[in-house]
Structures
1.
Amino acid sequence: MLFPFLKPDLPEPDAWIGYLEEAYRQKYFSNFGPSATRLASRMTKTYLRDGYEGILCASNTAGLTAVLQALSVAGKKVALPDFTFAATPQATFSAGAEPVVCDIDPVTWELSAESLAEAFEAHPDIACVIHVRPFGLLRDIEPIRALCRSKGVPLLVDAAAGLGAPSDNTKFGSSDGEIEVFSLHATKVFAIGEGGFIAAPAELLRKIKAAMNFGFNADRTYGDGQNAKIDEFRAAIGLAMLERMDEAVAGRREHAEFYRKVLTRYRNLSIADSPGATPWSNFPVVFDQEVTNQTLGVFSDNGIEVKKYYWPGVLNGYKGNRTLHALPVPHSNSLQNRCACFPIYSNFLPETGDLLEERIEKSMGMI
Ligand SMILES: *Cc1c(COP(=O)(O)O)cnc(C)c1O
């Protein structure tokens, strides 16, 4: 494939092996070791507002689960959008809660405040709201924050693909105290293999850390928890990755800008509205018709691997035995069938752009 959907871009061993020296000297390889602690403190400075603190964890999914456990949602309900990856409902089930699946806003593709308000009416016992930042797009989440504030319910944000592009006005965190969780999976922008990063108000982070460590209390009794810790090896890769994030994000922004120019010529698709300072793990578009296997085949025959993402949604996708509550989700049903993502690379070159543009033109003429 000329343009594969993913070109994971992790630091070479030479760049991170040195970061393991201290772990070997101290013979300390996990349980919040020297590299994991150093990386968490650097990432806190780089990405989070004052008053917030971050911690590394095993994956975004494990991080979401640990936060839900720290919020004691077992036996209660958690509202989340239908248009999301399997990790969001799976973390909810793992924490022993029942999802209340809500619809999305057709413009932002994110949890709809209207649908969430209906969910609160129908289920007054909702104990937490999970907002998803689809594709890592960094939108203003104030309407959802305001609703959670008025209900006194904690807000957890699944920002899996959103980490990587800091600037003073886009640092994560707010006075409302929402918790954001990111993925450091090989397919995301801040890529280390498997890993996650949790950002929370400092006082809440202590509880989350306990949930990540088998739920242990100081006296060795234990509450809800699991093992969600990251080891020193992946933290070392993370220290090297942090050093090259600016470069990686700059390359991805160029690639996204290319798509914006080329794809807005076509009237049968639309691109993301107000993407914010997203690091662009891929480039999502919405066609005015269903994206079929035949559509994907046309792109693939022309050398571009285009993928449907967050498809199927939660209600169409989950086939397990857990209890799940749902509101009508017409917008999600429509979007998940029409949405597709183009590849984004961190080393995007002008020559690549010329060839990609030609292949996009050819494909669009055939669908
Ligand atoms: C990628 C993704 C995840 C999964 O993250 P892991 O680190 O692999 O657990 C979860 N939620 C969303 C919205 C994602 O895009």
2.
Amino acid sequence: MSITSFLPPVRTLMGPGPSDVHPRISSAMARPTIGHLDPLFVGMMDEVKSLLQYAFQTKNELTIPVSAPGSAGMETCFMNLVEAGDKVVVCQNGVFGGRMKENVERLGATAIMVEDEWGKAVDCNKVEEALKANPDTKILAFVHAETSTGAVSDAKTLCEIARKHDCLTIVDAVTSLGGSELRVDDWGIDAIYSGTQKCLSCTPGISPVSFSKKATDVITSRKTKVNSWFLDMNLVMGYWGANTKRAYHHTAPVNALYALHESLVMLQDEGLENSWARHAKNHQALRAGLEAMGLSFIVDEADRLAQLNSVTIPDGVDEAAVRGQLLNEFNLEIGAGLGALAGKVWRIGLMGHSSRAENIILCLSALEAVLGDAVKQGVAVAAAQEILGA
Ligand SMILES: *Cc1c(COP(=O)(O)O)cnc(C)c1O
């Protein structure tokens, strides 16, 4: 057998994640591996925590990266805060709310579902009704940015409602962190998880999480042990915690954390609010181009995510063949529809380093070339340029 090195092509990643990794971040990842208990590495871990506090806009002490992808961040929040017999109100308006339900039920707790149509934001009134009808609810869980549809929900109001009903909140911010306004302390979020491969433009495989003081107290005073050894924050705190002598828990993914550190330094240097503004502007440019071409968005304008654009497929077009052609002829990846929207939409991501002018122009021209007569020709790039140049 003689298998040779794997040499992936350079693609432009405009799907639902991973997004384009900035060369500064991939080169950080190639730096020499040192021991995870090396004092220099421990110093870098502390910087990662501070940088994450900035990204989340929080002073929460328990703000750390979980050594596994976004789904593990989700499990970390549910495993640590939910105990058997608890009641959790779960909002579902796409794929990821369904995974929250799975988490709750596997823990022997009850999920009260508040469902909204795919492509709509979570309806705050329905959430209020559900909490009124279930006054013994412990936690409200919702997805801030639904990557499966491209809809953003009003996290600030949802957290206000939860507080009024004396509930903790678990918020999925995998796609919102770095790309949409998100203020953990101001909005009073208790537990939040994200991912590195969306608007942070880092390599996949790490999940930043943060827990408020109230949530941390719930975790440290549980009646039962957390059902996972690896994700038990009571143990992980000894590895990442403040004012503790670092004790071995697991081996941190050393090089992946160099990459996360670099991506967070880049976010700090750009400025969080500038990053939100860049995502918003580039979304408007892509939108202008797509609409000029004749494509339309499935999410109402007020609830649209800048970093994930779901557009309808023109009649008679083979959506999978188009994605294949974009990939093979233009090295461009866009996303397919997921769940209820499979076969009905394309999902075009403008996340992190992927959210830039050259990607927008490439995407519009490549789509125009591949779609031919199915769309209006020769107008998309100019429409986008008008906004990019402004
Ligand atoms: C991508 C994503 C996840 C899962 O993250 P992985 O890193 O793929 O495990 C969870 N929630 C949302 C909203 C996502 O977009």
